[in-house]
Amino acid sequence: MSGSLFDDLPEAQDDAVATYLHLTKVVMPAHARQPDVRWPVNEDHCFQRIVLDALFGDVWYRHLAKPAYRHLTRAQAMQAVQLCEDILAGRADLHALNAASLRYRGKLR
Q: Which own/partner contact pairs does 55-63 have at CB distance under 8 Å and 24+ positions apart?
């Protein structure tokens, strides 16, 4: 991708990261705003927090430099994409993942 945020990423990693960002910035927020969807969050940064915290089982920035998308390995980006797809398909519980993320951050007991 010439002239993009991903200029310094290898192509395979670029594709996985781009997919992760598209899912968390566009697809998931749009889905969350559907009238019949009862998700606990609807903002892109919340989906990114939840997915990355789930990936590391902890607050993501304890394990990854900021900005996260620049430092994800291809394997991590692919795992993030899979989790996004699982959430969208109802195979992963966004409510439970959000609660775990908030617990990691000391915002839930």
A: 55/79, 55/80, 55/83, 57/104, 58/104, 59/104, 59/105
